[in-house]
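Handout, section B. The chain below has 91 residues.
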Amino acid sequence: MWTVENSKNVAKAIKRLPRSIVDVLILLQRDIEENGPVRGDWSNYSKLAAGRHHCHLKKGKPTYVAVWEESRGKVKIVEVTYVGTHEGAPY
């Protein structure tokens, strides 16, 4: 089991996102909690660097993405560090 947390920036961004994107983000977070941070079954998933991942939450214009980082220790934690449009994503 993984613990999924949102960064402060993500918590703020969620308030400005369309409800449909927030719903998809919640599904992603639940999937990560149950199955871990490597989510090859999500649209345009890729591993960005060691312990960093991203996927598309919605294709089209605008495209919304999520970026998360994992830390493995006694407690397995994933922090969602970005959610928003593709143009602003921190790749």
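Note. The mean pLDDT is 94. Compare this with the example in section A.
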